[in-house]
């Protein structure tokens, strides 16, 4: 009825004429009638205003009637019926099951009633357009109607669904899309929740219809949980949780960290929480197990203890966003360190003791207990064995070092024959280690090939290298102009010789204070106290200037307040190198106040972890989620290297995935054509929970390289309920970038009526006569009747 009234009473201006030949007669007739009216009112005796009003009323009425002679008409463009496509796209994710405050029905129930095909707005839309209907959650599906609509989906792939529809109708004239959603997309990157970085130019006009209200009920949401592993001992694993609360004022929120057995490890309480407050909580744990581990962070109101065991106690809008899982991979070790020393010393004693309690690090040591003798030395007995074995049962054994070879003591749990030939002579043997530490050993100990091999170990393999400040290290060890000296972060030329005995105090530089593996205590004040209580050091290897890329982390200061570098690091090729010019850190442990603390042991453990922390493995496994895909597949990427740590092609890579239901899925990774030595495989996580993957790699000849582990978390429901409020910013961005606008759900009928007046791809002309409307003649009669009534009222004839 309202449309009929609008059409009948809408006065339009003509833009064409049906009978232009009648224009002259109509103009003449109109002019004569105007003169007649002017003459008739001139002779009447009446006030001027009255004659003017009556004359104008009669003139307008005559003009409306005279105009019918030229048949004024209006030509407009309207959508060609059934040619243009108009898409109705409805979100069916779980978040629409929520009931907003003050509402009796859920968002899903309201939407289902609106999407009924018998609704007037849909009937009108179908008269002008070819209507296509779709619904989406994590995937897009076409429907003929929405009678079976249910909001059960575990995702809201808004961007992916819009992309799919845009591609599907790219070659069809598309008038626009009505998007019914709350705007909380699960396929948006966390850094772009407003969608500003998406190219919207490919889309037709999108008209978002917002579901839900800005006011939400009580809700606590664990928005994000991240885990990071560090090389320093104070917090090997740090778990950060971001929690938000809405509808809660002045209450306390409890955040718990649980292990895989659902045992509570740590608890934090945030008091006096305010509405729409977001806060971060940090947990620090040291896992005892290795491999892929998972933790759970959950948050709830302190007044609702036990709500997860009895959900009916909850007064929140939903509990599906109160928990999140996070995964930690502790299976990258163990790492192997090769320690080589020119003589037994105190430094190795405490270093070995410190690393003995670290399950992630294995240390093998070569300690020289006797130097080699010159070849020309006179021998009293006809034996090649070194004199240290004289008159012993070992003298005749083949593995006993000769007189012209150094006598090396092997320390550590080694395989039979491992390091039996001394320092490694091949890449395969040396590259099996992750770091090398040299202490109190002259450069002459190594052959030229071993020096170059050690340089390749750092630059090509990416290993860690450290030189300690023994008596025959650095300048005194004659490492100047050697491949090993080139790796050091300090120059060995132009060294000012030490003036003699002095005592040194150790200090941290500003850069050193920022390095976690350098710090031992948790606060700067405690760290300053620790350094002040350290005993004075007496052994320092003087070196030259720092190299351009070096980082000075600690210095020493003598009694004259003169300073010199003590610990310097730098990157070298793919690896990193470190120079410790101090040769008697062991005094720290022998000090009378030191035996009761573990500071020195902690220093060595953190230093060793820093050395091996970024050393690449032969097989590197990574699993990442592809956010640009509507079903969010996991891409498992494997980088495989050969014994020389060069990319290995033709490897055999097999994957065994254990989903939450425990049924193992076996996959084979395919080579990546773009990158040598890289293999990939995709897997779709359809169930909620923890996924573990075991990657088995083999050489082309079938020999095993390694077995690695990785894992990931799938929480579609938690992502879906990340926030309960509509994402208006994202929906406004869609409307603005595509040329659409935000539509209210109760204004759909009005919106559909205005569609013909908008830009439509395919249109046709529509011509209609303006004067065929009875409202125009009613207006003319009304003008004449008003003129007659006005004259009768004032008593005019």
Automatic annotation (TrEMBL):
Pfam families assigned: GATase1_like
Membrane as UniProt keyword: yes
Start and end residues of each Putative glutamine amidotransferase domain: 413-612
DNA repair among keywords: no
Entry superkingdom: Bacteria
SUPFAM superfamilies: Class I glutamine amidotransferase-like
Transmembrane feature ranges: 22-41, 48-70
InterPro entries: Class_I_gatase-like (IPR029062), GATase1-like (IPR010768)
Keywords (A to Z) from UniProt: Membrane, Transmembrane, Transmembrane helix
Protein's UniProt name: Putative glutamine amidotransferase domain-containing protein
Organism: Rubinisphaera italica
């Amino acid at each position: 009825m309202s449309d009929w009234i609008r059409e009948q009473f809408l006065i339009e201006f003509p833009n064409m004429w049906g009978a232009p030949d009648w224009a002259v007669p109509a103009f003449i007739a109109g002019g004569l009638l105007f003169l007649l009216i002017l003459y008739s009112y001139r002779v009447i005796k009446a006030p001027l205003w009255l004659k003017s009003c009556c004359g104008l009323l009669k003139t307008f009425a005559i003009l409306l009637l005279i105009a019918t002679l030229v048949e004024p008409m209006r030509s407009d463009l309207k959508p060609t019926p059934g040619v243009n496509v108009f898409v109705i796209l409805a979100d069916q994710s779980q978040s629409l099951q929520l009931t907003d405050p003050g509402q009796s029905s859920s968002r899903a129930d309201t939407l289902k009633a609106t999407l009924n095909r018998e609704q007037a707005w849909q009937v009108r839309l179908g008269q002008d357009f070819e209507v296509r209907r779709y619904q989406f959650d994590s995937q897009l599906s076409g429907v003929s109607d929405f009678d079976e609509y249910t909001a059960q989906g575990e995702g809201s792939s808004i961007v992916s669904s819009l992309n799919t529809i845009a591609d599907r109708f790219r070659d069809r004239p598309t008038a626009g899309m009505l998007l019914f959603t709350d705007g909380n997309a699960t396929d948006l990157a966390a850094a772009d929740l407003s969608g500003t970085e998406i190219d919207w130019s490919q889309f037709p006009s999108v008209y978002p219809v917002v579901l839900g209200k800005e006011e939400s009920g009580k809700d606590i949401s664990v928005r994000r949980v991240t885990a990071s592993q560090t090389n320093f001992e104070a917090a090997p694993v740090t778990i950060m949780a971001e929690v938000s609360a809405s509808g809660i004022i002045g209450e306390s929120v409890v955040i718990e960290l649980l292990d895989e057995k659902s045992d509570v490890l740590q608890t934090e309480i945030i008091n006096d929480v305010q509405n729409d407050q977001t806060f971060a909580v940090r947990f620090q744990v040291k896992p005892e197990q290795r491999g892929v581990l998972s933790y759970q962070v959950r948050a709830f109101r302190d007044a609702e203890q036990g709500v997860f065991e009895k959900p009916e106690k909850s007064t929140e809008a939903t509990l599906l966003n109160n928990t999140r899982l996070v995964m930690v991979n502790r299976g990258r070790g163990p790492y192997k360190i090769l320690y080589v020393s020119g003589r037994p010393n105190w430094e190795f004693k405490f270093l070995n003791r410190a690393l003995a309690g670290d399950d992630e690090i294995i240390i093998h040591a070569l300690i020289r207990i006797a130097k080699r003798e010159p070849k020309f030395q006179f021998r009293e007995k006809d034996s090649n064995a070194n004199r240290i074995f004289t008159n012993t049962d070992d003298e005749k054994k083949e593995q006993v070092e000769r007189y012209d070879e150094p006598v090396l003591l092997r320390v550590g749990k080694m395989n039979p024959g491992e390091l039996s030939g001394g320092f490694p002579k091949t890449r395969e043997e040396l590259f099996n280690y992750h770091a090398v530490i040299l202490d109190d050993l002259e450069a002459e100990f190594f052959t030229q090939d071993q020096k170059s091999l050690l340089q390749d170990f750092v630059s090509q393999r990416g290993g860690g290298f450290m030189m300690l400040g023994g008596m025959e290290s650095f300048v005194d060890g004659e490492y100047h102009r050697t491949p090993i000296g080139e790796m050091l972060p300090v120059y060995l030329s132009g060294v000012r010789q030490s003036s003699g005995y002095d005592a040194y105090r150790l200090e941290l530089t500003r850069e050193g204070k920022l390095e976690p593996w350098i710090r031992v205590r948790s606060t700067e004040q405690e760290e300053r106290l620790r350094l002040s209580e350290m005993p004075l050091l007496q052994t320092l290897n003087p070196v030259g200037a720092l190299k351009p890329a070096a980082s000075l982390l600690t210095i020493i200061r003598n009694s004259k307040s003169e300073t010199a570098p003590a610990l310097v690091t730098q990157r070298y090729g793919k690896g990193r190198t470190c120079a410790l010019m101090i040769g008697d850190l062991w005094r720290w442990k022998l000090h009378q106040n030191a035996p009761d603390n573990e500071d020195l042991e902690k220093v060595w453990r953190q230093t060793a972890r820093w050395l091996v922390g970024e050393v690449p493995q032969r097989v590197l496994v990574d699993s990442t989620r592809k956010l640009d895909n509507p079903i969010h597949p996991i891409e498992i990427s494997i980088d495989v290297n050969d014994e020389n740590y060069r990319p290995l092609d033709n490897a055999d890579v097999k994957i065994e995935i254990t989903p939450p239901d425990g049924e193992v899925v076996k996959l084979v990774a395919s080579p990546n054509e773009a990158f040598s030595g890289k293999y990939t495989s995709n897997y779709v996580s359809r169930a909620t929970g923890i996924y573990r993957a075991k990657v088995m790699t083999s050489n082309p000849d079938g020999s095993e390289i390694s077995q690695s582990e990785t894992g990931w978390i799938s929480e579609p429901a938690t992502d879906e309920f990340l926030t309960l409020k509509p994402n208006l910013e994202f929906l406004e961005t869609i409307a603005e970038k595509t040329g659409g606008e935000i539509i209210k759900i109760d204004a759909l009928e009005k919106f559909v009526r205005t569609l013909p007046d908008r830009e439509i791809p395919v249109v046709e002309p529509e011509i209609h006569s303006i004067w065929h409307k009875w409202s125009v003649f009613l207006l003319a009669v009304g003008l004449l009747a008003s003129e007659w009534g006005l004259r009768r009222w004032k008593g005019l004839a």
